[in-house]
Amino acid sequence: MNNTPKTVESLINEAETKWASQGRTDEQKWAVRNFITGSMQEAITALNELRKADMAKNEVWVPVSGYEGYYEVSNLGNVRSIARMTVGRWEKLKTSPAKSLKGDTMKNGYKRVELSKDGRRHKIFVHRLVAIAYIPNPSDKPCVNHIDNDRANNQVGNLEWCTHQENTDHAKAQGRIWRPSGKDHHSAHITHCPKGHEYSGYNLVLTGANKTNRNCRECMRQSTKRYRARLRAEERLQK
């Protein structure tokens, strides 16, 4: 007996072959295909729900720094409010139930949630809440890096503290940032300045942090000459 699990396509092909021998119409064949595909999608959805349930068993919640007694953040990147008594309209007490915060996703992929305390609302990135709550930062590094480059994955194992430079280096190593330089730069083929002076020898001046910006010494000299002439003319007018 063959216990090998059948794929969606094999089930569809088997059903179409069987029904074709029975003279089924194309509409009936499509009905079979849709039934099998729909059943597989339901199975996949059920498996995803089971996976979420297993993850929830390992979910740990701690108070959000600065919002103790108001909100909690988990090691899986979820944020929820805590049931508490609040003052509503006409200074009446009301119960605010606990609920999970969905937040919003920015265009760049980062997730944010809005936290409220003492009448003030603040939108805070979820990955920073998780890092502050679970990851030690003895070097006081300012940035939080997503190790797998997925900005929606805010689980604690996917985050790390880093400097601005380390964050940039990681993005470059993963191919998310590429700044052409040298022969790959868009202006590498330009050999003369806009006024026709050649970028070579004594006339070439390299500036910038990495000495990659090309400047024309002759144009710089002429610009300085015009500036000094204008200063002398203003001094004569003042006399």
Question: What report would you give on this structure?
Answer:
The structure is a single chain. With 239 residues, the protein is α+β, with helices and mostly antiparallel strands. It folds into three domains: 8-57; 61-173, Homing Intron 3 (I-Ppo) Encoded Endonuclease, Chain A (Alpha-Beta Complex), CATH 3.90.75; 187-238, no CATH class. Helix content is 36%, strand content 21%. It has five helices and twelve strands. The strands form five sheets. Strands 1-2-3 form a three-stranded antiparallel beta sheet, with helices on one face. It has a three-stranded antiparallel beta sheet with strand order 6-7-8. Strands 4-5 form a two-stranded antiparallel ribbon. Strand 4 (84-87) and strand 5 (93-96) form a beta hairpin. Helix 1 (8-21) runs antiparallel to helix 2. It is flat, with a radius of gyration of 32 Å. The N and C termini lie far apart (110 Å).
